[in-house]
Amino acid sequence: MYYHQIQLSPCISVRPSLMLKPRMVQTSGEVVKTERRRVDHCTRVPRNVNLEKLRNGYLFPEIGMRENEHLQKYPYAKLISLGIGDTTEPIPDIITSNMVEQAQALSTVKGYKGYGAEQGNKSLRKAIADVIYRGLKVKDTEIFVSDGAQCDISRLQLLLGSNVTMAVQDPSFPAYIDSGVIIGQAGELQEETGKYWNIEYMKCGPQNNFFPDLSTTARTDIIFFCSPNNPTGYAASRKQLEQLVEFARKNGSIIIYDSAYAAYISDDSPRSIFEIPGAREVAIEVSSFSKFAGFTGVRLGWTVVPEELCFANGFPVIKDFNRIVCTCFNGASNIAQAGGLACLSPEGSMAVRGVIDYYKENARIILDTFASLGLKAYGGKNAPYVWVHFPGSSSWDVFDEILEKTHISTVPGRGFGPGGEEYIRVSAFGHRESILEASMRLKNLFR
Amino acid sequence: MSLTHLSISFSSSSSAFLSSNSINSRTLKVAVPAKKNGICKCIATPPAETAAYKTKVSRNANMAKLQAGYLFPEIARRRAAHILKYPDAQVISLGIGDTTEPIPEVITSAMAQRSHSLSTLEGYSGYGAEQGEKKLRAAIASTFYADMGIEESDIFVSDGAKCDISRLQLLFGSNVTMAVQDPSYPAYVDSSVIMGQTGQFQKDIEKYGNIEYMRCSPENGFFPDLSTIQKTDIIFFCSPNNPTGSAATREQLTQLVRFAKENGSIIVYDSAYAMYISDDRPRSIFEIPGAKEVAIETTSFSKYAGFTGVRLGWTVVPKELLFSDGFPVAKDFNRIVCTCFNGASNIAQAGGLACLSPEGLKAMHEVVSFYKDNTKLIVDTFNSLGFKVYGGEHAPYVWVHFPGRSSWDVFAEILEKTHIVTTPGSGFGPGGEGFIRVSAFGHRGNVLEACKRFKLLYK
Fold first, then answer.
1. Contact check, Cβ <8 Å, A252/B131
2. Is there a contact between B340 and A179 (Cβ–Cβ < 8 Å)?
3. B110 and B241 both lie in a single domain
4. Contact between B28 and A104 using a beta-carbon 8 Å cutoff
């Protein structure tokens, strides 16, 4: 996506709005066309002040743009993308064949399906309840199938509205904060701290074992919590999650628990917040088939809203979420849902596990690489991300240096919040050869 | 309208959601306006458990403004209840505008192929551009907007118009005012309420505060009298119209664009039924000069390609469209799309591309033609029974007038006596009272049977 730099007349000229930290650049990776275009008319519709609060573009398109710029600068470089967490390995045949079948069925009289239930196909909801939440008393009626966690997060924000306060881990997946700003829960961005007013940032770092010190965390209505964590890769322990649930309960807060990477857990860390007693009354869980089954482009996920979860006036949250889903959404693609169902079959689960193990092995290689270089690297064991510490550095500078000198893209930790400064996130998605090649290049650079 | 206190069980389009045992939580007594003499199903729920835990999070006041469930799940709920009552009845669904005919093979085979290729090294793709695949955006631009100055980069592919409407509301925020046609597709009003743009629902007039309702009726040829319309920031306009079936003329749309320009408003133009137009009236708002500076267009593959379950649509935000401070609307919409969305399914997009091939376009026109033939059968039926019938020429909806009657009553009567599901006009706004929307999606046999039953009932 590129923008024309428009010279406007008689309207006020557009101020530079695409600011990439630390540089002010008004480009995208594609060609920038600067042209004078006479525009006679501005509407009188005020720009949404919440969108004005957002200073930069969303993080991952920014990384994409940097990659494109780099490729233009070095057209013969073999760029290795360990930035955006994009899956690379083919989806197992057992799953895609189900999608093929569903697609073909749509051109038969018997097999044609129109609108599906907005909450998702019953069979898929049941499979998610039975397989993902086995033994956890999550009902199929509490499961809302979606086109992915990023979309669900915004629908949850629509549900909650602008009059709630939120807490996020720092660093965290940018969609929580950005969607909170868009819906109007946040104040202005404070330049000095890099934090939005009215958002509670829960620092997570090696000093506190990547779990926030809840005794110093202010009460908020909503607590976003991602585990295994993007970007740090840390998976909270049972004890920690019990603390979190207790904290939420004491404060009357709602936890929005993002378990998109649960399938990457290697130890006995909880895979769902609902493994914790009492969670049903304080938590919503959001998850996704993206990193689980390579569905990043296929688009499928789900959100669990327990029946017991109530607003202060006793109104069940699930009722309002259902209303949102019926009004602002129209169901996930029926073909994607057919794929999801196949993922949860015994054979599908096994096949999917094979791909996850492949990425986990990638993560191990990356982890070893940094360890061998004497750099402190975290995560990588319960998540497909490695969180590398470059003490005293600006993460965007390190990002630039790595990109420039090794043609590897990563993600600067600062993109995930001020708590990410001095860190680089390296994602473990990639063909094995690319991972091994990247490993070599990194060793050469940092030796 | 009298108030009936109901213990609400939320509705959904799957009847299983209805069962009260699915909620073992507290009973919430919420006042819901009873449909006038309509059938109100009171569902008993178990008494509140004492000392049940509640969070301290306030319910979103905007959600509390909504009066009932979204319209179409309500229709589905009624249908399901009717089937339970008459398990042997052959219920014919002309209510929810759900497509019924198989998707042409040229399109599904492209989706099958894309699905299969995802399990190959060369064919696998992960995240796509949030704005949509380049080829599809280009095909949309060249197929629908050739010679209108709308480019590939103005097009944002989505998982459907309904979803786009809410993303547009997120874009606009709560500090804008809106106008809608009355009657209109309920998602415009409901999403506006949810976003916080409106006041409370005023039960006496059945309107939300702070929304400008633009009456569209036989008296004004289903085009609002703009001289009586207050200025608002946003104007939702659907043409061909759901539910009235009316399609605005070039002259009328020119007026609308001028009105928007004079008032500095943004038109959100819903053209989801454009392919059903039978003559040369505009299929896109961008056929009107000056529209690019005042309008966004949103549309869908749902009713052209039977993609109601596949999920694919698009929104056009021209580069020329600017907020009052000169900031391009497209930039903010792009930010929304990148942050609150993650692209339409790549398989659906492959289907979309096939839809726009010469063969695909031909196939889509054939399906549309089929539904249009259905529409004609329904129009003829009601005409022959002496009803005043509207729409049906440029849209797959027939808007039948039942003067002096409550539309929910008529809906209930038709359902009870003929086992045909329709949609009561008041579900689309107070301007829909006295009308029934009959949708023309259905197998030919069902449509013919429905026509027979209508004739028997209203002979």
1. no
2. yes
3. yes
4. no
